Amino acid sequence: MIITRAPFRVSFAGGGSDLPSFYEKHGGCVLSTTIDKYVYLSVHPSFHANETILRYKQSEVVEDIEEISHEIVRACLKKGDFKGIEIHSDADIPAGKGLGSSSAFTVALLTALHSQKQEEFNKESLAQEACQIELSQLDKPIGKQDQYASAYGGLNFYRFQKDGTVTVEEVKMSDRDKAKLENNLLMFHIGNVHDAAEILAEQSQNNAQADKEQSLNKMCRLAEELKVQLEAGNVDAMGEILHENWLLKRTLASGVSNPEIDSFYEKAMTAGASGGKLLGAGGAGFLLFYVQPEQQEAVRQALELDEIKFAYDKEGAKIIYSTEG
Hints:
The model has no long low-confidence stretch (mean pLDDT 92). A hairpin with a 6-residue loop joins strand 9 and strand 10. By secondary structure, the chain is α+β, with helices and mostly antiparallel strands. The chain has 11 helices and 12 strands.
């Protein structure tokens, strides 16, 4: 048996510029961190060699890989010519909450399958393969930031080149500054589940519009500026940049925000947050705010939402157990 895990991510600035419809024309960039919330996958041979068994939020038992309903599992198993295995999936947070869960699942599964075959792989090859499966093979209208974040782990700046290649740069901060950033970020669950693909598909179509291109170019510059400020020790710049990025992101597609989200955001800002954003494509999931310690209790009371405590993940996708040692 092999058990793997892959982290979810929190994106701070630049999200949306990782869509091919934008970066193939302009190049894109995102600054994000992975957090200690994970998807877990276990893989081992099936008792009946002719059966492939899946256990996630539903169960599947098939003899033909083509019969698998879960499209990511079907694509990964076909690519690796797998059959006669059993796969179990669990996660710290449900899917559809804006934390890159779908791509984390893909990365965790690829880690397990390559390990099952004792094949060599690294963070870059995992990220590339996950992108190839989700964007090219399954034609999902999504970007590349989630796959790279989950594979690499850590606080990183990602640059998406026009030719489709991706460069990964660690955001270098002192331990004290990292601790301050972590302590001043509050994440709240607003409920519901969004259809990221639908929102991103609309955004991808909108990216051809001049005003949307202008907004994404500004969001890229904010991601670049955030990297500079964090590395210079100006951690409090996070609040203002989150706010500017959110104002721009709200203009990209109709489903990004709604009156309820806008109301929560306004309450948090009035209570003392210096900036924030909705995580993920939009419409549901989690709100993230940068708040000084002396205002944090006021923000919690103003929102009256479930707060999700989190810390950094520094490792990315990894094997956490193997009967092979």
